[in-house]
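B., you asked whether I could sanity-check this one before it goes into the benchmark set. Here's the sequence:
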Amino acid sequence: MRLRKQALGTRNLVGARVEQARKSQGMKQKELLAQLQVNGVDMNASGLSKLEGQIRYVTDYELAALAKILNVSVEWLLGLEK
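And here's what the prediction gave me:
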């Protein structure tokens, strides 16, 4: 497992939650990327890494797909519910 070299950014609220949900399900970034592709979201490994590191913005399409794939609510991803 590689450790993040950069500090967490401030460009999204969901990155840390995406990483938390993905890891709690034992899912690798590669697997999440494949599921995103199946759901019509074109993202590469660098983009996902930046998303999880809160360095890049998240689109509404990505947010909806991430919630569906990770089986969590959009509200949870946004930190609005525990």
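One thing to flag: The chain has a mean pLDDT of 93. Otherwise nothing jumped out at me.
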